[in-house]
Amino acid sequence: MTPESGEPVRPAAVAGSWYPDAEAPLRAAVSSYLAMVEDTPSGDIVAIIAPHAGLVYSGPVAAHAYQAVMGRAYDVAVLVGPSHHVAFDGVAIYPRGAFDTPLGPVPVAAGVADQLMRTPCIRIHPTAHVREHSLEMQLPFLRHVLPDTPIVPLVIGSQERETILALAEALAGTLAGLTPLIVASTDLSHYFDADRAASFDGVVIDYVARFDPDGLLAEYERYPAHERGRCVACGGGAAVAVMKAAATLGARDARVLCHADSGDVSGDKSAVVGYLA
Questions:
Q1: Predicted confidence band of residue 1 (pLDDT cuts 50, 70, 90)
Q2: Backbone phi and psi for residue 60, each to the nearest 5 degrees, phi listed first
Q3: What is the mean pLDDT of the chain?
């Protein structure tokens, strides 16, 4: 699919820094990470969780999630991630046009976006998308494994319970009757030493493995708002909303495919970021 002429195209913000800005090296990197995945789950896959750090750090983990959906048929991929640069309430949608990538533009499913905007907390907020990497880092994999699947980009501002639950309900209601893939973009704990990070991450992993979004939301809310991204997950609200929507759409269980941290690549285990597929 290609975007219609005249529609807005969101330029890639971190190509050339967080991942290669040319097609050949980017496709080679994505292909190499996917090729290292040895085990993929069977059955229908409604949703995935994937990290969003620089490709060299989180790409090997993200590949486990995307290898699981490679070549499957989806009507739309809805991407849900946290806002790292702009503070706002509710959910910012990019409603039409495309996101540009070195692998070609990824078109927005405007019809699905229009339906989602019937929910009061979901609104157009272009500034929230200009620099945001949490969704952009999913696109090299999506463009490679599901090249014909359009997207709906959603960035959560303040990840409060009311917004998370409203988003989950909107996703489930809008996507019923379609064959969707919902992508929660999140990293786990930030900048603890590897042992302490593994302890924090293990709590999140346990809730995901048990397919318990309500438990994960309660864990998220145990911390002050400014500590949730550091101690739990920067996209914890995205993960909860996506898991709850997936359950309503028929998902029955979850499977942890891979967990690692930035120190596995950098060699520095003194202050790591956790990644989960």
A1: very low
A2: -60, -30
A3: 96
Eight-state DSSP code of residue 214: H
Q: How many CA atoms lie within 13 A of 139 on its CB side?
A: 31
Residue 97 has pLDDT above 60, yes or no: yes
Question: What is the C-alpha separation between 116 and 175, in angstroms, rounded?
Answer: 9
The model's pLDDT over 99-142, given as tens digits with 9 standing for 90+, comes to 999 999 999 999 999 999 999 999 999 999 999 999 999 999 99
The DSSP element (H or E) to which 47 belongs, if any, is strand 47-50
SS3 state of residue 261 = strand
Burial class (CB in 10 A: 0-12, 13-18, 19+), 169: middle
100 with 129: CB under 8 angstroms?
no
pLDDT tens profile 17-41? 999 999 999 999 999 999 999 988 9
Q: What is the DSSP letter of 221?
A: H
If you compute the radius of gyration of the chain from its CA atoms, what whole number of angstroms results? 17
**Separation CA 131–CA 32 (nearest Å):** 27
Find residue 124's DSSP bridge partners: 93
- d(CA 9, CA 23) in angstroms, rounded, equals 18
Element (H, E) at 142: helix 139-145
For residues 141 and 9, give the distance between their C-alpha atoms in angstroms, rounded to a whole number. 19
For tokens 């996507």, what's the residue?
Answer: 175
Task: Look at the alpha carbons of 232, 235, 241, 242 in this order and tell me if their dihedral is positive or negative.
Answer: negative
Count the neighbouring beta carbons within 10 Å of the beta carbon of residue 185.
Answer: 28
H or E element in which residue 275 lies = strand 272-276
Phi and psi angles of residue 105, each rounded to the nearest 5 degrees, phi first: -70, 145
